[in-house]
């Protein structure tokens, strides 16, 4: 374990001739990486990490408990929901979560065998057994398009407004916020101090 590392950026990708045959190798690499960076404070994950977190979660593996206080994730697809279900319970020290929607076109080839509808339903009904006791800030950056038509982001927004009990700020960086403002502000939230902020350009 890298005890003195304060920040880790994992934007990785592997290219094997036999992708399916090397699935286990890639899973092992990610397990070792997550064990090694469990004590860093700031973590940034790329699409490959989220995809293989989903693969590992579907195989029954859970990441080790972590000390991450700030995490940045790529834009999540419905097929990534198992990875998110795996990531959140081990991140109880999380204070700030950033989701960068710039990566929303990344493919999830290994997860394409699972239907979007099944994984979205699994995410929405999943009991994470945690209330995010320290999560105060959530930022979604580089988002474009109306919220009501985005089947990927809508369940995330509902979930993160409903569950974190000390949430103070939910920031969505959008080009045009008027179409989503009324709908978003109507969602229930657990924290009485949570404010929803639209950052627009």
UniProtKB/TrEMBL annotation:
Pfam families with a match to the protein in the record: FBD (PF08387)
InterPro entries referenced in this protein's UniProt entry, alphabetically: FBD, FBL13/AtMIF1-like
Domain FBD stretches: 129-199
Protein name, entry field: FBD domain-containing protein
Organism: Nicotiana tabacum
UniProt gene name: LOC107768135
């Amino acid at each position: 374990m890298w005890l003195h590392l304060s920040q880790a950026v994992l934007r990785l990708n592997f290219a094997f001739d036999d992708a399916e045959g090397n699935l286990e190798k890639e899973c092992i690499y990610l397990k070792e990486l997550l064990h090694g960076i469990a004590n860093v404070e700031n973590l940034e994950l790329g699409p490959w990490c989220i995809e293989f977190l989903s693969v590992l979660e579907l195989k029954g593996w859970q990441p080790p408990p972590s000390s991450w206080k700030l995490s940045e994730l790529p834009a999540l697809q419905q097929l990534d929901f198992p990875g998110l279900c795996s990531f959140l319970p081990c991140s109880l020290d999380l204070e700030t979560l950033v989701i960068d929607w710039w990566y929303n076109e990344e493919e999830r080839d290994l997860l394409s065998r699972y239907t979007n509808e099944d994984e979205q339903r699994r995410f929405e009904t999943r009991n994470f057994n945690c209330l995010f006791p320290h999560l105060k800030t959530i930022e979604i950056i580089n988002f474009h398009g109306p919220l009501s038509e985005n089947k990927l982001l809508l369940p995330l927004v509902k979930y993160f407004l409903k569950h974190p009990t000390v949430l103070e700020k939910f920031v969505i960086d959008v080009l045009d916020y008027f179409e989503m403002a009324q709908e978003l502000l109507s969602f229930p939230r657990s924290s009485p101090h949570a404010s929803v902020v639209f950052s627009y350009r």
